[in-house]
Write a structure and sequence with these properties.
By secondary structure, the chain is mostly helical. The chain has one domain. Helices cover 73% and strands 0% of the residues. It is globular and about 75 Å long. The two termini are 15 Å apart.
Length: 417
């Protein structure tokens, strides 16, 4: 199968994006199907022994942050690709980009407030507005910038970790001042996960019941979680820009190189998650330990595993095997925006009380047959839709809003799918 089609889309780029949007659901499903802190702590909800703990550990090592990282690199690559196309067609790359980011921010706000709080669109919109200044930077500058941002994230996380441990030690010391003890108690209360019952009651109720529980979490995501994720998000966008310029995503590198990246990425980085898993488990998933272990795996291990995952997809595309699956992955990737939102809507209707009401009813491992079912739906509908229409439904709406006029949706008869 060729890597570039007649519509100037890079098939490998679309396929990687398709794998990313499908893979993100491997982690998001836990946050949608049960009280959200189970995403981080298997002891919190969903089962913490046997197959349930193994499910958490496998996802942690292979997919946690990696699929979002893959999606983020694709976002960086697409930023350069769209800017270059705008420049080639005589449009202003900046005008096109910032119009896209504005409307992406609007869509993200609708998603985070009215559908599900675990949104990444707002983060991408804000990060995209910042990162656009770098779209013409050299590969070397982009890579150095990305590394510097990851180092900054790790340094900040280390500083936070040592400060909290220092406060804990001081508060537990004999004759510790009352003010220090009070500060530590307040810090502990702030870090303590809320009881699952509040979320169970809300998400098994009406839409308004769910909204009341979701609203504070949505605010936390926008005001605390997204700012914390900004440095590594910008780093991965920079890497995505650089790798796009180097031809990595278009399959321009040798098959031997892709094989080596995949082999060594998985062989080295997956086992290195084991001490992080043991550390979290030994501390019973203390929020302080979670903070530093998350930074360690996101900055030191995730970038290499993202490249390993991408290399596997590229090798699959180049192999020509299972062309039916390759075509459907490409279609899912071309409709990544629609499929991302569709995944949230389908999950919410399955688990929340105003849908099938399965929230909190499944163990962790039992969520994954649901994931497979949703994958079948997304893989099943994307290709037939694009055979008839030029864009996914939300891609069409986004494009129309950016252009300021209604864009044609139907595919011309002489234009290939």
């Amino acid at each position: 199968m060729s890597t570039v089609n007649t519509a100037e889309r890079i098939d490998t780029l679309d396929a990687i994006r398709g794998v990313a949007v499908l893979g993100i659901l491997l982690m998001n499903i836990v946050d949608i199907a049960m009280p959200g802190w189970a995403y981080y702590d298997p002891y919190y909800y969903g089962g913490s022994e046997g197959v349930n703990f193994a499910t958490w550990a496998i996802n942690y090592a292979l997919f946690d942050g990696k699929m979002r990282g893959l999606f983020t690199m694709m976002f960086g690559a697409s930023t350069v690709l769209i800017a270059e196309r705008a420049l080639k067609s005589g449009e202003s790359p900046a005008r096109v980009h910032y119009a896209r980011m504005f409307w992406l921010l609007v869509f993200g706000m609708i998603h985070v407030w009215f559908i599900w709080y675990g949104d990444i669109l707002v983060l991408y919109a804000v990060a995209g507005m910042i990162a656009f200044v770098a779209w013409r930077w050299s590969v070397r500058t982009l890579i150095i910038t990305g590394i510097a941002l990851l180092v900054l994230k790790l340094l900040l996380a280390t500083w936070t970790y040592t400060s909290l441990r220092g406060l804990e030690t001081a508060a537990n010391a004999p004759n510790a001042p009352a003010s220090v003890q009070q500060e530590w108690r307040a810090t502990q209360e702030e870090m303590t996960f809320p009881p699952p019952q509040t979320q169970l009651d809300g998400y098994l109720g009406s839409y308004m019941d769910a909204f009341k529980v979701r609203a504070p979490v949505s605010m936390y995501i926008l005001t605390e979680a997204h700012p914390l994720a900004m440095t590594d998000t910008l780093a991965l966008i920079a890497f995505g820009m650089a790798l796009f310029r180097l031809g990595f995503f278009s399959g321009a590198w040798s098959k031997t190189t892709y094989r080596r990246i995949a082999l060594w990425g998985f062989a080295i980085c997956v086992p290195l998650h084991i001490p992080l898993i043991l550390w979290n488990d030994a501390d019973r998933f203390s929020p302080i330990t979670l903070h530093i272990t998350e930074a360690l795996h996101l900055t030191l291990l995730r970038p290499w595993l993202v490249l390993a995952h991408a290399s596997v997809v590229i090798l699959f595309m180049q192999s020509g095997a299972a062309s039916w699956l390759a075509e459907r992955l490409i279609a899912v990737g071309r409709m990544a925006f629609s499929n991302y939102i569709a995944s949230s809507i389908i999950c919410v209707l399955i688990f929340h009380g105003y849908g099938l009401g399965l929230y909190g009813q499944l163990e962790r491992w039992q969520c994954y047959p649901v994931v497979l079912l949703i994958w079948v739906v997304l893989l099943g509908w994307s290709k037939p839709w694009l055979e008839r229409y030029a864009y996914g439904p939300l891609e069409w709406l986004w494009r129309s809003l950016v252009r300021g006029r209604r864009q044609p949706l139907s595919r011309p008869a002489d234009r290939p799918a």
